Structures are given as structure tokens and as C-alpha cells.
Amino acid sequence: MTERQFERYLLKQDNDSLLEIRTEIDRIINSRNDEFFKMHLRTEHQRAVIKAAADYWGLPYEAAYSKRRFREVKHFKHAMRFAMRCATSMSLQDIGKMLNCNHATVTHSIKYIQDSILAEPEYYMKCIEFCEHIKMVMQELELNKNTPIFTSINYN
Q1: 92 Cβ contact partners less than 8 Å away, ≥ 6 residues apart
Q2: Mean pLDDT of residues grouped by 10 in the chain (156 residues)?
Q3: Distances 91 to 42, 87, 142 between C-alpha atoms, Å
Q4: CA–CA distance, 83 with 137 (Å, rounded to integer)
Q5: Are 151 and 90 in contact (CB under 8 A)?
Q6: pTM of this prediction?
Q7: Which domains does the chain have, with CATH numbers?
């Protein structure tokens, strides 16, 4: 069974246990690259926001970096990029570097969420609530630190 066939099977089955198994496999595979991602996420605050976002969405932390295209993971990634754009003053390039994608992907995610107003209003409302949740998490982090958290970061 190819990877694409397996993904289709999971979508048809809508079986949470199979998705959990696949997510665990992704976590193990991505754990080897975890140091690379930590290198790009220079602040603990950024990692804390991603962890809080993954917890809110009900996915593991590694889902933010996974290359998988399961529906829930895809929706989480789109919502995360949208929320980071709405809640911060970060540029598209910085959001992309933080979330392991490029600026065009961030732009696509923002348009995807905006287009979902008519196509999937429940998903759109969940994204708006998610954006508010991210803002609250960032405010809590700012109360603990007096330094700016999300500004442009030079990753070179």
C-alpha cells in the first residue's frame, strides 16, 4: 500500500486510533530533525505558543512541522499561520521560517481561511476562536517577560 493509498484509507475510515498511530510514526521520524527546528525557534516563547496551539487543536507539537496532509493537520497548519499573522507583527517570511514553510504558503493559508467563510463557516469560526486563543497565550507570556516576543528575527 502506497503512502497516498494509506492516507485515503485513513480518511475513509475516520478512525482516530489509526491517525494516532500515524502521528506517532511522524513524531518518531521528525524527532531526528527536532534539533534543526529548535535552532530556528530561537525563543522559548515561540515554542510555548506552538505547544499551546497544538494542545488547543488536539494535536501533538510535531504536527506543526509535519509534512503530512491529513485533514486535521492541514487545518491546524492553516489556522496556525493565519493566527500568527493576525496576532503578531511578524512578516510572512518570519512566520514561514518559524513554521517550516515559505511566505507563499503563509499567504495561501490566509486566503484559504478567508475563503472558508462561505465554504466551511464552522472551520472559519474555529480559526477565529483559535486566533483569540493565541493572542491570550501571547499576552500571558508577555506578562511574564517585559521583552518583545514576536518581532523579526534574523535566522542567518
Answers
A1: 85, 103, 106, 107
A2: 69 63 67 50 75 90 80 91 89 87 93 92 94 90 58 46
A3: 16, 12, 20
A4: 12
A5: yes
A6: 0.67
A7: 3-144 (1.10.1750.10)
